[in-house]
Amino acid sequence: MRILYLDPFHGGSHAAVAEGFARHSRHDVTLLTLSIAGGWRWRMRGAAVTLARMLRERAQERYDLIVATDMLDLATFLGLTRELTSGTPVALYMHENQLTYPLPPGRTRDLAFPWINYTSALAADALLFNSAFHRRAFLEALPGLPGRYHDHRELDLIDAIAAKSVVLYPGVDLARLDEGHDGGNGPASVPYTTSKAATEGDR
């Protein structure tokens, strides 16, 4: 299977998950990424346009699956690339969301960013959350977003989002934990796998 992985905010844990997946997957994974230098707000607003251009530049390539992360305006991206992505299933990996992400004291939430998460969730064929807590928090808070308005709230669509949402824990490279326990020959090779703490319960 050929997988296109779109990471518009490629740094920190986002980069670790993307690169670990590409390195350890049995599939052929292509990463299209943008750095974190532009800031997350600009990435959520503008990355869809840039990543669409990047995909058109490699239009001769075809993919069996697209994986995008939550910093991408997925609905806009798919609209800009429909001649290339129509018919290709799309999964949205939710590292975090802008509806329940904690704000610094005194800051008001800009609802434009949660709305991007919402429309991206609608556009995706599947949502992959990094924890059960995250999935539950997002789905519980989501009705309040369209519910703020006086008509056409389309609240039934939230049930559809829930139905296509699952938990997929991020992989963890545990090689560093083996340093000093292999007879001095360097860190042992371990698979890219979920941590014991993650599989036994959410924090």
Description:
The chain starts with a strand and ends with a helix. Residues 186-203 have low confidence and may be disordered. The chain has 2 domains: 2-170, Rossmann fold (3-Layer(aba) Sandwich); 173-203, no CATH class. It contains 8 helices and 6 strands; from the N terminus they run E-H-E-H-E-H-H-E-H-E-H-H-E-H. The chain is globular, with a radius of gyration of 18 Å. Helix 2 (40-56) packs parallel to helix 3 and helix 3 crosses helix 5 (112-123). The protein has a 6-stranded parallel sheet, with helices on both faces. It is of the alpha/beta class and 203 residues long.
Question: Which features does this protein show?
Answer:
single chain, 203 residues, alpha/beta, Rossmann fold, 6-stranded parallel beta sheet, 8 helices, 6 strands, 37% helix, 17% strand, globular, disordered C terminus
Measured distance between first and last alpha carbons = 33 Å
Number of strands: 6
Question: Which regions are unreliable across 5 or more consecutive residues at pLDDT < 50?
Answer: 186-203
Number of helices: 8
Largest sheet: 6 strands, parallel
- Amount of beta strand: 15-25%
What's this, in brief?
With 203 residues, the chain is an alpha/beta fold.
Please specify the SSE layout and strand pairing.
Layout: E1 2-10, H1 12-24, E2 28-35, H2 40-56, E3 65-69, H3 74-80, H4 82-85, E4 90-94, H5 112-123, E5 126-129, H6 132-141, H7 156-163, E6 165-167, H8 196-200
Parallel strand pairs: 1-2, 1-3, 3-4, 4-5, 5-6
Helix pairs in contact: 2-3, 3-5
